TrEMBL record:
Belongs to the fatty acyl-CoA reductase family. It comes from Ooceraea biroi (Clonal raider ant). Keywords: Lipid biosynthesis, Lipid metabolism, Membrane, NADP, Oxidoreductase, Transmembrane, Transmembrane helix. CDD domains: FAR-N_SDR_e (cd05236), FAR_C (cd09071). Residues 365-457 form the Fatty acyl-CoA reductase C-terminal domain. The keyword Iron does not apply. This is Fatty acyl-CoA reductase. It comes from the Eukaryota. Its EC number is 1.2.1.84. Its main location: membrane. InterPro entries: FAR, FAR_C, FAR_NAD-bd, NAD(P)-bd_dom_sf. SUPFAM superfamilies: NAD(P)-binding Rossmann-fold domains (SSF51735).
Amino acid sequence: MTKDAANIYISAFYAGRSIFITGATGFVGKVLIEKLLRSCPNVGEIYMLMRPKKGLDVNERLKKMLENKLFDHLRSEQPSSFDKLIPIIGDVSAEGLGLQLIDRQTLIEKVSVVINVAASVRFDENLKSAIFNNTRSTRDVCILAQDMKKLVALIHISSTYTQTDKVVVNEELYPYDVDWKQMIKIAETVDDDILNTFTAKCLGSFPNTYIFSKRLAEDIISDYSKSLPCAIVRPSIVISTADEPVKGWIDNFNGPVGSFVGGGKGILRVLYMDPLVDSDYMPVDVFIKTVIILTWKRGIKSITEDNTVHVYNCSSYNVINITGIELIQMGFEITKDIPLEGIIWTPRTTVTTNYLKYYTLVILLHILPALVIDAILKLLHKRPMLLKLQRKVFITNNALSYFLLHTWHFRNEKLVQLFDDLSIDNWKDFGYDYGSIVSHRFFVNSLIGAKIFLLNEDMNLDAAKLHRKRMDWLDRIVRILFVFIILWILYRRNTLSYITEALSPFFA
């Protein structure tokens, strides 16, 4: 690889370079690894920070990860590329990333690009864990990077929502009056009970510990940028793939896919949200292209040539303009044409901004039916599950409510320019037409992806459509019976005669 070629061609820049990725086994990390191996075939080793989990060591976890359908293309076309993936035992929640000395030295000697993806996205996490996972880990990544002999770029994955205290969020660093060093020290030394009491005061205007800890992490990157070639990418809500390596791939129920599945199954009957609020979505493959392009842009200039922090909002600003209610209605239209299997009732969701109404409807439409259905399952000697599921739905909706009740505008002019400036050669593998980022077809593919990759359902829809028709008829029958029961009760109490008499003067 020549320096001139690396400055011109993205794939040439990555040729022979070793990369260290935290959060490599997560949703974003998997897509990043797949894209690097597929579109930068001469990339060097990719070191993946991993920890043993669920009885599997890191090698077993890697093997299991590579069985995912996301890697089908690589498995058939470039199977030897998997040899470049090297798991490194560690844990972002541990001080020093939990690295062994020999592995740390390997990274210091070989790595030239660091991509810090790892984060705990639990909104209800206690402050100590959030600080360790999202803030201290970022500091430790920077400390490690300072020792790397070949480092040309350190890319930190943040979130547009780290700036929820602003209505309009520009692609720039914002000063913050909380000292990240002091917060790490507090998390390390203060008793858990005291820290839990202290949490609300710490968060201030931020809605949860995730946003707060990620906001502090940006300040860490800002401080270390004086000696490190840093860049920050802030994605909005990262959702299923738009195009590659397969349309609609996803491995979680976050974002609109969760609403599509919950609503399409007939489980999600009520949502606490503002129906007119716009949400900002970003297909994960477009986001990963941004990360790869930005790493190249940052990496071809040394810290002496450019000591600024590059900040990009990876958002769909001025492209996606879809309100919550429009998205829900679209989901119902899509699930009518592409029904999910085993729905428990005709899909229908009520949206409200009144929490008392929401809570009441949760009891009537979620909890009570769940108790009845679980009781029936017990009688049939089957495992009850719906009440537990509805509890998760309730907790999730409450955790997300802040984001479902507010609107932000994440400006992305620098990001759009990043794509516009690509040469024809680079555009082939890394370009994307921002004007076509979202359409009805995209969400159709998202639902199909959910059916295939999350629910393990096939696309033979005959049985699912027949079941949907049965549930629609059952829904109509129950509604009619409900009206007749109410009228019968009113009749038995002579209420109807009173109503008729009261209204008779208006029809005389």
